[in-house]
Each structure stands twice: as C-alpha cells, then as structure tokens.
Amino acid sequence: MKALTYHGPGRRTWGEVPDPVVREPEDAVVRVDAVTICGTDLHILKGDVPEVAEGRVLGHEAVGTVVETGPGVRTVAPGDRVLVSCISACGRCRYCRAAVYGQCTGGGGWVLGHLVDGTQAEYVRTPFADNSLHKLPEGVTDEAALLLADILPTAYEVGVTNGRVRPGDTVVVVGAGPIGLAAITTARLFSPREVIAVDLARTRLDAAKRAGADTVLDAREVDAAALRALGPDSLGADVAIEAVGIPETFELCTRAVRPGGRVANVGVHGRPAVLHLEELWIRNLTITTGLVDTRSTPLLLDLLAEGRLDTDGLVTHRFGLDEMQDAYDVFADPDTSGALKVALFRT
Fold first, then answer.
1. Three-state secondary structure call for residue 341
2. Nearest 5°: phi and psi at 60?
3. Residue 306: how many CB atoms within 10 A of its CB?
C-alpha cells in the first residue's frame, strides 16, 4: 500500500510500505476512506516530537471501513463504517478506567502516527479497536465525521471543558485555526455571553465569524489591555482559550482574563513559554493544559447526527488520497492557501 512516511525534520515521502496486519487479538485493520492532516503532523516534521522514528507512517485522524479484526474484537466487524480516534485506549489501566484515555499506560494514548504507524495511508492497523473505533451513525458523512477524530473533541475537552465555559461567560479564543474554530463552535453549546476571536489572518477571522464568534480582532491591533476592556466591567474575559502554541499567545491569554479567570491551553508548544507567577499568583487564575482523551466523541457524534453540531466550513480544501504531498503543501502554508482543514478521500 501507499503511505506518507517521516524521514527526519523536513523530510516526508509518499510511497510503498508493507500492508498492515492484525498483530494483537484486539487489533482491527481499517481501509482509510477519508483522512486529514493535523498541526501536530507539522510539528513532527519540524522535529518537535523526537519520539517519532524514521519511516513512521504519520497521521492520527481518519474515517474508514473495517476490513479485518482480531479474535478479541467484539463491537466492530468487517464492513462497519468507523471513525478512527486520534487516541487509542486499552480500557483496563488506571487512566482508562477513569476515562482519561490520553494518558493510557496499557499501550494506548496518542500512539497512531507517533509511536505506531498512523492513518495517512491506504490502510491502518488500529490497536484496541473496541475502545478506539466508533461506528458512524447513518447520515453522517465521512467529511463531517473526520472532524471528530481530533479537533472537535480536543477543542471541546481541552479548551471548553477545561476552561469551564458557562452560560453568560465572555470567552476569548486566541488563534482561529482549526482548533480555535472548533473551540468557538463547541463553546457555543454553553450559551456564553460573548465569544471573541483573535488571529492575524483575515480569512481565519472571517471563518471565526461564520463559526459563531461575536467579535473578531486582528492580533496586530489588540493587546491584553484592549481584550480586558471587552469583558464585563472592563476586568477581562472569564475564559481565554490558547489555540496557537507559541509563548506570546500564551502570555496574552494569561493577561486577558479577569481575576478568578481561567486559561485553557490547547496549542502544542515547541518552545518554552514564561509563566509570570510574580504577576499571576495574586489574581486567582486557573491555568490548564492537556492532551485530548476523546471521552466526548460519542456525545459529539450524537450531536452531529442530530444536526446540533455544525462543522460546515472547517474543511476548505479536498484532495484524493494520492495527492497527499500537495495537501501537505497547502496545509503548511495557510497564509497563501487560506487552508483551515484539508480532507483527502479514497478515489
């Protein structure tokens, strides 16, 4: 089969690799019908994730059809349409029993495209299939479901839930890329007073407006004081969601919230950020970080099937699976391409 493989910082190849096979009783092999590229894949290609071995098939998000299962798999069968979650879960360890699947110590967690071969291929072996694959409801398209493999549960769990967004809150989302847009969409489920999006790109601010942001601001024209002035009593936002992953945006979020506010860091950071405890300790701030657990995926799938979760507009570019290299070039240069999320389909 063909797959996208990593060969050190800045080097990737689309070419022939061995077909995946069932290795463990709880494995399934899935034919990839739709797949996407994540910002984390770009971090890997920059060398920010040194655990990724040369030759690794990248990717951790897909929709596909089960073609083979191990003898220990009970809930999915060949022919089932499934969502391949970005997180694999053994279901037995201390963390899985607490639904903290991202920290699985039984061989799961974020392993696809990281520690084992991933989804940017014609077929993928998925460990712990019963806990890591989700059968798709009738009427849910491959493209819509694809967004629930990672960005929707990540934004919902690590951003909105960790940030404890509540009715009447003022929410600032810094970064209107795919994760930021998903945070805007899922924050709306909790009836906030106002959602404010901050980004450098006009196209992303326009997308944020379509996703439900009440106010959009050019990051070049706003500072923390200006953001605080938009909150109730000019004291700042209740919640700031960091969806970029650079020190400057993290520090902006810590300064944009009101005393007692919450900062939910979602962005993947490739270099250190300063934590100004000399300023923050007295303001009663809560700062959270996290890797997605995907415990919300069944709920989000239900909301999607019922038409209560709108993912329209998040995918901006579509390709055939064999156009993987072109898709990477487009996704990696959003300033030129205007790309938000790209989707690749079996043809």
1. strand
2. -140, 20
3. 10
The SS3 assignment for 203 reads: helix
pLDDT, position 269: 87
Structure token digits, residue 99: 């639904």
Q: Are 20 and 84 in contact (CB under 8 A)?
A: no
Statement: residue 312 has pLDDT above 90: no
What is the Cα–Cα distance from 193 to 201, expressed in whole angstroms? 25
Question: Over the stretch 71-118, which tens digit does the pLDDT of each residue have?
Answer: 999 999 999 999 999 999 999 999 999 999 999 999 999 999 999 999
Q: Residue 112: helix, strand or coil by DSSP?
A: strand
Percent helix, percent strand, percent coil in the chain, to nearest 5: 30, 25, 45
Tokens coding 287: 């700062």
The total of other beta-carbon atoms located within 10 Å of residue 312's CB is 10
Tokens 């303001």 belong to residue: 283
Q: What percent of the chain has pLDDT over 90?
A: 94
Judge contact between 219 and 205, C-beta under 8 A.
no
Q: Taking the model in full, what pTM does it have?
A: 0.95
